[in-house]
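Why predict the complex rather than its parts? Because the way molecules touch one another can change local conformation, and only a joint prediction can capture that. The input here totals 595 residues.
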Amino acid sequence: MSTEKMAKRAGTKKTKMNAAMIWGAAIVGVFVLVAVLAPVLAPYDPYKMGIPYIKPSAEHLLGTNDVGQDLLSELIYGTRISLFIGIFTSIIVTVVSLTLSLLSGYYKGAIDKAVTAITNITMGLPDLALTILLIAYLNPGKLSVIISISLTAWTGTARILRSRVLQLCEMPFIKIEQAIGMNDFIIMIKHIVPNLKDIILSRAALSVSAAMMTEAGLSFLGLGDFGAKSWGTILHYAFYQNGVIRNYYWWYLPPILCTSLAVLGFMLLGYYGAQKAKLVKNA
Amino acid sequence: MLEINHVSVEFASENRVLAVDDISIRLPDGSRTAIVGETGSGKSVLLLSIVRLLPRNAIVRGKIELDGENLLSADKKRLQQVRGGVVSYVPQGGGASMNPLLKVGYQVGEPLIEHKNYSRSQAVEASISLMKRFNLLNEEKLARSYPHTFSGGMRQRAMVAMGIAAGPRIILADEPTKGLDDKRVRLVADSINMLKEETLLCVTHDMSFAQAVSRDICVMYAAQQVEFGKSEEILNDALHPYTRDIINAMPENGMRYDDVGFAPAHGSYLNHSDGCRYRDRCRERSEKCVIMPPVFDVNGRKVRCWKYDSAN
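Output of the joint prediction:
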């Protein structure tokens, strides 16, 4: 899924994107470009070992790590993993919360009570602890990271969407659709979901950033995908191979900056997108 | 034939309210009936109970029979076939009566996709010819535009087109003229009168509109049916004091209405022990009115007033 497209859609043609959203879209766009063009952009194979601890130089723009791997290449390839996990988790989170909120908001009654109860219980769980526990039990890999993060991350979006679905279901046009005998599935897909799109898109952008943060944290703790090189993994090695103590700033600073910048990008998109949507709604 | 048989609707909340109190109306095929009454008299609730679109806390008693089949016990699948396919509900075309994100052409043709398995483009074609039937002008362009570009009268006529799209036999119209000026009301009346074969049950509080579209009129007051009869008979010679009051209050009759007194809210209408509900506003009340009058038959017309007690 292209995030730029997402950004474009979040600010529809009629409501122009504001400056914050344009910045967000630009940042996200650059990272997506880097991820896609990683093999072209990376000067070295990130797994190729060489001379360790080289300071940033013309040859190795960001220096090398403890086994002599080029850090710039690692960082560029790391963009792929971080973005992949972020976006994929966000898709799962959005689909799960959308489905649950549609079911509970549209059918109400017992289903609504059940979904609300599940949401409340999940919200009450200590999510980071649960995620760490789950990863420890599952086989290490991208998929388990994605599953573990998604398991607790859907609650906020589900709540917001449910309230909006409840609101929409009382709108005359939904009642009318029922009165002309449309089936529930079509009412939900054709009439309710399009009216939720501003919330869905901005919440999706926000969950990308949340998932990226969690992924970086997990990888830093050594719970990520060992084979893959994500920003968190670089940080993990920088810390545990004493890169931080010896102050090899070129080793630990870039992944931190990249994570923060990417998260900022998605936040700007999501947060200001949501605000924009709210403004339009209230107008 | 649609038969509404002793239907009562109660809302079971903390304060129980009886919104429709024991109403029976027979609608033979091709009949045209208007339900007239003031806001809150239970007209719309009665209409919604036919298509079973009331909120969950509504309890409907009695029988609503469509050609002998009780709709109140129909399952969900059957209801979906009936709604729009056999019985169609035409709502008031207010601002949010159409999905703001979908084009009008598609929405008007949507019942055809559901009930007649039309494709999307066929449905849009059909909706253009439907809208032509109601003289919306420039129909091809309208089909491609969004609902917010429509005026109130246009939207209402589009709603009528949408309601009849799948060729239902019975049309339930819920205040189709609310918020429209006189000229638009006439346009909507014209478009409803174009449906000659269909059975019509129309809820309105506009007497002249009721006169324009109906052959029978049912007058409701405080959840009850107070009078039922042929439209001309009712308009020329109303029996119930309430009907007489609202007819006198019509602009063309000089808005003659001297209020006897403001009627306090009767509340929940749950019991009949308070007597006639129009008593407080009635100019012809008598001692007998403290007892709830039954429905009397006066030369084939029904009226709920002690004045017509044949025992006298």
